[in-house]
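Lecture 7 notes: from sequence to structure.

We start with a single chain of 238 residues. Read the sequence below before looking at the structure.
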Amino acid sequence: MKTLDQLNVKIFADGADLDGILELYRNPYIKGFTTNPTLMRKSGISDYEKFSRQVLEKISDRPISLEVFSDEFGEMERQAHKIAAWGKNVYVKIPVTNTRRESSAELVRRLASDGVQLNVTALMTNDQVSIASKALGSHIPAYISVFAGRIADTGRDPVPLMKEAVKIMSAYPNQELIWASPRELLNIFQADEIGCHVITVTHDVLKKLSLVGKDLGEYSLDTVKLFYTDAQKAGYQL
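Now the structure, written as tokens:
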């Protein structure tokens, strides 16, 4: 199997914990960062702009994706321009539709024409990928985030879909496909194998990076020791 040094896919950390983000920033394997309103809310963040600016003050040399949070395209557009102005490394996340299932393609087209770096997010079908890719065009550096992990949650294999997404986007070298919402470390290697450009990984999964390439015999023994030690600590008797 490949080592982390041999991977072509870029690993982005997905989270909203400032200390965790800054710790991962020191890891050379982490090439960028993403977050979203749900992660921010779970982390107890109440001031969206303050938190975002704190991150951007510390990290200016790697891409950071920050999401709009309106359901109206006019307000999304205003928020997108405001967020984009916070830093040259900012990519504004625009959902593929609003909550009424209305496509954001026209908004994406306008923002891309205005030079706003974008990350079109929450896609789950290749029809969506095709529409988003055409809307982005070749104007600006951009990402398209396909939520492969959520696709897998429905019992579908995301790998064939992601392979096709890579082909669809190949007409635009300025666009990169993100394998979003992975569920396990294996997904990094799956994304790399199919030529996916980026994978976003949550902080808890990233903690497993040290296991990459670990001898399975040793890992088996570590597991036996763990179960034995916990049983001893619990004082179980029969």
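The mean pLDDT is 97. Keep this in mind for problem set 3.
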